[in-house]
Amino acid sequence: MTNTLIVIGAGSDPEPYFDENYSRIVLIEPLPSAAEALRRKSVGRKNVQIEELAVVTDPSLNQLFEFSLPEYSSVRQPSGLKSIMVGLRQKYEHVIKTLAVDELVDRYQLGSEGKNKLVIQANGEEVNIFRQLCEIKHQNRFSEIVLVGRADYSLYQNERLFVEGAGEVSISDYDVEISEGSAPGSKIWVFLLNPYKRLVGDLKNRVSDLENEKKIVETDFEQYKKSSCADIYALEKEVSEYSDKVERAEAEREELVAEVECLEEKLSLQSDTNKLLQSDIEKFKEVQVDLVEKHRHEINDLAMRAETAERACVDLESKVLSLIDQKTKGEEAFQHAERSLKDCEEKLRSLSEYSETLKDRLSNSERTNGVQAKLLTKMRADHSELSQRYSALQTRERELTELIMELHQKLTQASGFLKRLQKDHPNLLSEY
Fold first, then answer.
1. Which pLDDT tens digit goes with each residue over 48-78?
2. d(Cα 343, Cα 278) in Å, to the nearest integer?
3. Buried-most residue among 152, 347, 348, 432 (CB within 10 A)?
4. What is the largest CA-CA distance in the chain?
5. CB atoms inside a 10 Å sphere around CB 374
6. In this structure, what are the phi and psi dihedrals at residue 147, rounded to the nearest 5 degrees?
């Protein structure tokens, strides 16, 4: 916490500033003779610091014009001053050290807390200094700012009047007191920090920041909402495509069953067979039973997974109910397929019984070996064709299984997405 008084353009008399209750007093004076007088009169005062330099807003202003009246010396050439002070003449021109306005706070280590006071009475440059101080937001390091300047007419070249310059700068945190200065036409503006005004300003800024953050959050939420709807739509589209694939697979299954029935009709027309054919038929029967049992277990497993996926998606809102309907249709299609496989098994059992009949008939047959060989060749060809068709059926079953697994993964992702949506944005789903 700092407690500093800084005077820009202190002149040659430091006594008025000694009465101020500050732990540190910085007197800035560029005129060499005046700075020497300040040092001489401040001997023994450890809290007083004399700086022989000028605070300027333009680095090129490094020359001080000393006049016959030293109190009117300035880094700017006189203009209106000559008409007021008749006989005023320039005595010397000094090359001086300068300090930029934005370096003032850092040079004297002025904190944001504490009681700091700034007095600006730099001839021809006071309003420029005050204006730039406000533009870089360094005026808030001072609880009191005293500006000695003019509002009616300028005395120096490029001098800005208070109304023209500093009046454009917002100093809403300060209360302003105006009084007449000691020099002709000069005025004194005293800016006293009002902590309540600063608090109100900070609160307004905070409210503005919160409103901006709210707009950003709302914008992000809208984008997230649109993205979520797009994902759900894409999932519905995939389920619809899967339903079409299931229907096509069911149609192919029916065609295959019809082909099997046609093959059975062909086998019924054969009246004779031999032992080798019977052995082949028995082996074929065992293979078919194993295949049917395997397919039955796979279908049961798929049905259980579909039921699990259905239970996981119960919490979805009205938009995903169509997905459950599609899944139910898929289950019905697979149940129908299972029934078809059972029918196929019954038909294979009938074929076995019919083969037994053929065996009995074979024992009583008197046909030649040539005829039997032809029948055996035909039966083997039919057996090979039947095996190929059941292999194709197994391939289609495997593809159908992969489609069901893909549906299960999609439904699981949809369920997880909905749960995260319910957790992070419960109000979003309430709108639907």
1. 999 999 999 888 988 999 888 888 889 988 8
2. 22
3. 348
4. 158
5. 12
6. -115, 120
Tokens at 188, concatenated = 């004194």
Name the token pair of 238.
């995939």
Residues 6+ apart with CB under 8 A from 240: 326
- Determine the 3-state secondary structure of 51 from DSSP: strand
Which tokens go with 231? Answer: 């994902």
Radius of gyration of the chain (CA): 51
146, 119 in Cβ contact below 8 A?
yes
The kind and range of the H/E element at 293 are helix 275-312
CA distance 169 to 96: 29
360-369 long-range contacts, Cβ below 8 Å, gap at least 24? 361/271, 361/272, 362/272, 362/273, 362/274, 362/275, 362/278, 365/272, 367/272
pLDDT tens profile 64-115? 998 888 888 899 888 877 777 777 888 888 999 999 998 988 898 887 766 8
Burial (CB count <10 Å: 0-12, 13-18, 19+), residue 148: buried
* Residue at token pair 């608090």: 199
Report the C-alpha gap between 27 and 7 in whole angstroms: 5
Handedness of CA 323, 329, 331, 337 (dihedral sign): negative
Q: Are strands 144-150 and 4-8 parallel, antiparallel or unpaired?
A: unpaired
Q: What angle do CA 70, 72, 73 make, to 5 degrees?
A: 70
Burial label for 41, CB within 10 Å (0-12, 13-18, 19+), is middle
